[in-house]
């Protein structure tokens, strides 16, 4: 028997010819090539039958439209690649974009150096190269989705008639229609992942995926699920991952590389030779704040309660750190898990109750101690007063005969400890007398000096103050408004309401039922967050000068285009390297900036030093791409005989550009804007390739008109899909409604 001819690399990867080769047949699932790749476990017919059953089980939103063919490369268009001529040509952007066209690339650029332009160039060229392919830009949040849509549209010039914004606010039928009629999609990762799982997204037609804030692609994040879902449909797509901080460790960065199928890295820092001439100076000042007599008095009083809990854990050999100033929540949680896995298995029930209760108490006390030592007297007073009020409500409910009212034992112990009550009264007296925390005093000095140097009105300068907790943000706004009125401060927080918000410290959240739940809702309503619409309004007013100072939680650290900021004040120091880099990247974009980090002398300063050394080590590691293993799973997507040549094109204004705000309409707006056809305005852009909008085609069919058209032909009978001549898909129903209809 003659030896079997060796397969080429392309045949081994695709199980047959590549999509750009003549012998390629678009089969996707169930094709002969796919049957060969499964190693003969099924015959071709049985494999197709099994796969069809699997797809029926996953698909909850059925569609009668036939499966679209795989997108095929336009070899004539692929001979050139387009770069926008209307923007300044920066060498590093040009080089990165050129390389990202040919391999799955992770781009690590500091904030403000133009990652969006690189994404727009890659999107535009794959839009031209694959006329039937779809391009997806995924972002972690809805505001980022709309922001990237506007930015990429201005740079890439892709027509709005084929562009859609899709988030969880879109209903499944609307998203299904968008997937049929559009080619470029800006969506959240969760929305894309849901559409892939339900089958309304033709994942096999996606040729390019841009992942914003790619450092989030770890574990089972929606980014990872979405990319894996596309890879399960076909292997022929390009990935472009964008981030300013890929990770704090080699393991974290390698995880992002593996999860996003990265084959090439492009890393630059502010000191890179091809970047430094486009950056502005950023002065980093570290201000070490000494303690005060009032703060020492309050810490000594509150520390008595903390010492009792830590001493008990040390006596039981469960935790060894006795100084509350050096204790962190991470240390306590790690020690508790270790104790549960080792000594806790053989401990008596009495010891388990005592040690678990001591861990819970120490965890809450360490969080409260951090508020007192690093934030302000008012923040500490608000947090503990919330616990005391919850205990009072619980006792009142029990006295009224409410047997279902519940509260954690930790909060009961805190509210009934004399040292805690005395510290709260002392902090309250400091707040009433106008005595500020030492760090707050330094913040007022820094902000006042900045405005004194840049003019009294502050119309030409902007400041951002970062603090991790919402109570601290509220107090900073109050203090700055009263002591530095020209700074015009405004709070900028997340959407979560009440004490359980993502950017609010939550001290041992209680579990309540009945009347207690109603009371908790009323408290949350009084402490509401900001909706996305309110966030956008605040950012717009900040950019226009309505506010000169933005006091923000972590919501303002990454992604959002807040505008030019001259001074960044970090009221606290996050241990996360990524968060610190994101904060610093808010200034020094188009003019020189300054970053001031306020640190209390002692433990907070030492924690910052360790985080800073981690950050420097991380950059040294990432700059050496040889430290990472790149999987060999990135298709070139162009035939070997084609090497595209660059063409500089002034693409601004060459495309239709309706107001992109119509694409961001939420559910309520869709209901108001829907016409007789029931199609939202985001679908009413004219499709140049057909000549009529989906709404017009639907009206012609419903009204029975037979308007002749060289593109559409005569009107089809009612009940037939206009675009495909297939039976119209059934109305999507939930599982419960389908069950009820069967019973009827």
UniProtKB/TrEMBL annotation:
<feature type="region of interest" description="Disordered">
    <location>
        <begin position="704"/>
        <end position="744"/>
    </location>
</feature>
<dbReference type="Pfam" id="PF00271">
    <property type="entry name" value="Helicase_C"/>
</dbReference>
<dbReference type="GO" id="GO:0005524">
    <property type="term" value="F:ATP binding"/>
</dbReference>
<dbReference type="InterPro" id="IPR027417">
    <property type="entry name" value="P-loop_NTPase"/>
</dbReference>
<dbReference type="GO" id="GO:0043138">
    <property type="term" value="F:3'-5' DNA helicase activity"/>
</dbReference>
<feature type="compositionally biased region" description="Basic residues">
    <location>
        <begin position="732"/>
        <end position="744"/>
    </location>
</feature>
<feature type="region of interest" description="Disordered">
    <location>
        <begin position="653"/>
        <end position="680"/>
    </location>
</feature>
<keyword id="KW-0347">Helicase</keyword>
<dbReference type="InterPro" id="IPR039686">
    <property type="entry name" value="FANCM/Mph1-like_ID"/>
</dbReference>
<dbReference type="GO" id="GO:0000400">
    <property type="term" value="F:four-way junction DNA binding"/>
</dbReference>
<dbReference type="InterPro" id="IPR011545">
    <property type="entry name" value="DEAD/DEAH_box_helicase_dom"/>
</dbReference>
<feature type="domain" description="Helicase ATP-binding">
    <location>
        <begin position="96"/>
        <end position="264"/>
    </location>
</feature>
<dbReference type="InterPro" id="IPR044749">
    <property type="entry name" value="FANCM_DEXDc"/>
</dbReference>
<feature type="domain" description="Helicase C-terminal">
    <location>
        <begin position="442"/>
        <end position="634"/>
    </location>
</feature>
<keyword id="KW-0547">Nucleotide-binding</keyword>
<dbReference type="GO" id="GO:0036297">
    <property type="term" value="P:interstrand cross-link repair"/>
</dbReference>
<dbReference type="GO" id="GO:0045003">
    <property type="term" value="P:double-strand break repair via synthesis-dependent strand annealing"/>
</dbReference>
<dbReference type="GO" id="GO:0009378">
    <property type="term" value="F:four-way junction helicase activity"/>
</dbReference>
<feature type="compositionally biased region" description="Basic residues">
    <location>
        <begin position="512"/>
        <end position="526"/>
    </location>
</feature>
<keyword id="KW-0067">ATP-binding</keyword>
<dbReference type="GO" id="GO:0016787">
    <property type="term" value="F:hydrolase activity"/>
</dbReference>
<keyword id="KW-0539">Nucleus</keyword>
<dbReference type="InterPro" id="IPR014001">
    <property type="entry name" value="Helicase_ATP-bd"/>
</dbReference>
<feature type="region of interest" description="Disordered">
    <location>
        <begin position="1"/>
        <end position="26"/>
    </location>
</feature>
<comment type="similarity">
    <text>Belongs to the DEAD box helicase family. DEAH subfamily. FANCM sub-subfamily.</text>
</comment>
<feature type="region of interest" description="Disordered">
    <location>
        <begin position="504"/>
        <end position="532"/>
    </location>
</feature>
<keyword id="KW-0378">Hydrolase</keyword>
<dbReference type="GO" id="GO:0005634">
    <property type="term" value="C:nucleus"/>
</dbReference>
<dbReference type="Pfam" id="PF00270">
    <property type="entry name" value="DEAD"/>
</dbReference>
<dbReference type="InterPro" id="IPR001650">
    <property type="entry name" value="Helicase_C-like"/>
</dbReference>
<protein>
    <recommendedName>
        <fullName>ATP-dependent DNA helicase</fullName>
    </recommendedName>
</protein>
């Amino acid at each position: 028997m003659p030896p079997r001819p060796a397969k080429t690399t392309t045949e081994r990867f695709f199980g047959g010819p590549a999509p750009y080769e003549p012998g390629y047949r678009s089969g996707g699932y169930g094709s002969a090539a796919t049957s060969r790749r499964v190693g003969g476990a099924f015959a071709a017919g049985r494999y197709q039958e099994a796969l069809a059953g699997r797809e029926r089980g996953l698909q909850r939103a059925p569609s009668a439209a036939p499966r679209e063919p795989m997108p095929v490369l336009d070899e004539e268009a692929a001979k050139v690649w387009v770069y926008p001529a209307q923007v300044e040509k920066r060498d590093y952007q040009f080089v990165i974009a050129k390389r990202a066209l040919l391999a799955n690339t992770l781009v690590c650029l500091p904030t403000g150096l133009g990652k969006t332009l690189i994404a727009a160039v890659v999107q535009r060229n794959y839009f031209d190269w694959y006329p039937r392919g779809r391009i997806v830009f995924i972002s972690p949040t809805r505001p980022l989705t709309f922001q990237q849509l506007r930015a990429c549209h201005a740079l890439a010039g892709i027509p709005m008639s084929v562009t859609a914004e899709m988030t969880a606010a879109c209903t499944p039928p609307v998203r299904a229609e968008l997937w049929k009629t559009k080619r470029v999609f800006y969506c959240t990762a969760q929305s894309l992942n849901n559409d892939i799982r339900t089958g309304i997204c033709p994942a096999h037609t996606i040729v390019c995926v841009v992942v914003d804030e790619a450092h989030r692609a770890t574990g089972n994040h929606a980014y990872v699920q979405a990319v894996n879902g596309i890879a399960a449909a076909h292997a022929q797509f390009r990935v472009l991952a964008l981030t300013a901080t890929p990770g704090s460790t080699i393991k974290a960065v390698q995880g992002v590389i593996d999860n996003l199928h990265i084959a090439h890295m492009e890393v630059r820092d502010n000191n890179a030779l091809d970047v430094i001439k486009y950056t502005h100076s950023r002065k980093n000042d570290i201000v070490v704040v000494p303690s005060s007599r009032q703060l020492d008095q309050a810490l000594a009083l509150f520390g008595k309660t903390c010492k009792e809990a830590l001493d008990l854990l040390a006596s039981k050999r469960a935790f060894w750190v006795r100084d509350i100033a050096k204790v962190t929540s991470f240390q306590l949680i790690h020690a508790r898990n270790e104790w549960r896995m080792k000594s806790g298995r053989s401990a008596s029930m009495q010891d388990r109750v005592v040690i678990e209760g001591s861990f819970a108490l120490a965890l809450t006390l360490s969080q409260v101690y951090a508020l007192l030592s690093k934030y302000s007297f008012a923040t500490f007073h608000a947090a503990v007063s919330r616990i005391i009020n919850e205990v009072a409500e619980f006792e009142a409910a029990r006295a009224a005969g409410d047997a279902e009212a519940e509260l954690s034992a930790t909060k009961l112990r805190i509210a009934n400890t004399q040292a805690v009550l005395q510290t709260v009264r002392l902090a309250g007296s400091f707040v009433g007398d106008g005595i500020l925390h030492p760090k707050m005093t330094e913040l007022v000095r820094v902000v006042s000096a900045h405005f004194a140097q840049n003019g009294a009105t502050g119309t030409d300068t902007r400041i951002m103050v970062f603090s991790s907790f919402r109570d601290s943000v509220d107090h900073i706004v109050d203090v700055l408004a009263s002591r530095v009125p020209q700074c015009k401060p405004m709070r900028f927080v997340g959407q979560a309401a009440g004490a359980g918000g993502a950017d609010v410290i939550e001290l041992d959240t209680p579990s309540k039922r009945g009347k207690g739940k109603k009371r908790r809702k009323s408290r949350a309503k009084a402490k509401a967050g900001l909706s996305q619409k309110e966030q956008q309004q605040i950012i717009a007013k900040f950019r226009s000068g309505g506010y000169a100072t933005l006091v923000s939680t972590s919501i303002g650290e990454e992604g959002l285009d807040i505008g030019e900021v001259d001074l960044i004040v970090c009221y606290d120091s996050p241990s996360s390297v990524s968060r610190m880099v994101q904060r610093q990247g808010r200034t020094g974009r188009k003019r020189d900036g300054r970053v001031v980090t306020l640190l209390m002398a002692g433990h907070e300063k030492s924690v910052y030093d360790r985080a800073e050394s981690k950050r420097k080590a991380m950059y040294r590691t990432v700059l050496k791409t040889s430290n990472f293993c790149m999987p060999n799973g990135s298709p070139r997507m162009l035939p070997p005989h084609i090497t595209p040549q660059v063409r500089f094109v002034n693409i601004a204004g060459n495309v239709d550009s309706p107001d992109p705000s119509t694409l961001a309409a939420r559910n309520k707006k869709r209901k108001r804007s829907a016409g007789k056809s029931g199609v939202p305005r985001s679908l009413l852009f004219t499709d140049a390739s057909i000549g009529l909008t989906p709404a017009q085609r639907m009206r012609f069919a419903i009204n029975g008109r037979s308007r002749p058209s060289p593109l559409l032909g005569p009107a089809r009978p009612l009940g037939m899909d206009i675009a495909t001549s297939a039976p119209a898909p059934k109305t999507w129903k939930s599982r419960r409604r389908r069950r009820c209809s069967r019973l009827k």
